[in-house]
Amino acid sequence: MSFVVAIDGPAGAGKSSVAKRLAHRLSVRYLDTGAIYRAIAFDLDRKGIPPDDTADLRGALRGISIELREGGVLLNGEDVSAAIRTPHVDGIVSAYSALGCVREALLDLQRGQRQYGSLVVEGRDVGSVVFPDAPLKFFMTASPEARARRRCLELQRRGELVPFEDVLSQIRVRDRFDSTRAIAPLTRPEDAVLVDTSEMTEDEVLEYLERRVRDVLEPEGREEAQ
Ligand code: DC
Question: What confidence score (pLDDT) does residue 40 get?
Fold first, then answer.
């Protein structure tokens, strides 16, 4: 039986690393929907098309093809995996991803990934809009300060020194934008399990999610083992 595990939550809650490792442990594919939005924003920005809902933008969307590979994103055949992870793209992606025409254009691409089998999917509206029937939904969050600390460390590892206060204020702006946009805002689906990762290590979060998933997927095996 194939299944979808949907993991939503704000930037920096630790979704990506945990979702990737969870997919690996469950031997299923990992889908990073944020990477798709980043690729679109990167492309439109590079072409000088601003995030206004205009005919130009709609036309440009029709010419974009995105392919998801294990660990990478191809934009019209070009590997943009690194280019979409810059502070510049962090700053522009929310405005593009708030547009109805962008979200609509990406819905089929995301849902289409289901044809290749089970998925662990990560994003902002995965449990609420993209895969509302997913049997397992998590909403991962953490305090803005904890998220900013993690983001600073991640940037440091990549050799980019950005002041903590700048990162924190960018996170707050992005949170506000992502949760107040009119279409598919970041919200916790009622049936999602809330996981506050502020005081948890990555391993603890992973163990918790894996246990919850296995409880749902293998209930009989668990009862017998007890
Ligand atoms: O998870 P991330 O930081 O890579 O996501 C980048 C942006 O994409 C984020 O600001 C909001 C948007 N996004 C979205 O609107 N819906 C999703 N399912 C995933 C990401």
Answer: 97
Encoded tokens for 123: 């994003």
Q: What is the pLDDT of residue 221?
A: 57
- Crossing angle between the packed helical segments 87-97 and 100-112, to the nearest 10 degrees: 100
CATH number for the domain that contains residue 196: 3.40.50.300
Q: Which of 85, 86, 97, 106 to mutate to test the pocket of ligand 1 (most atoms within 8 A of CB)?
A: 97
Q: Domain range spanning residue 198?
A: 4-225
Please report the pLDDT score of residue 226 as a whole number. 44
Q: How many domains does the chain have?
A: 1
pTM of the model: 0.90
Ligand 1 close to Cβ of residue 44 (< 6 A): no
Which residue CA neighbors atom 9 of ligand 1 most closely? 94
- Written as one string, the DSSP assignment of 101-152 is HHHHHHHHHHHHGGGGS-EEEEESSIIIII-TT-SEEEEEE--HHHHHHHHH
| pLDDT value for 225 | 45
Ligand 1 touching residue 125 (CB < 6 A): yes
Structure tokens at 213: 């998933």
Instruction: Note the pLDDT tens digit of each residue in 177-212.
Output: 888 888 888 888 899 999 999 999 999 999 999 999
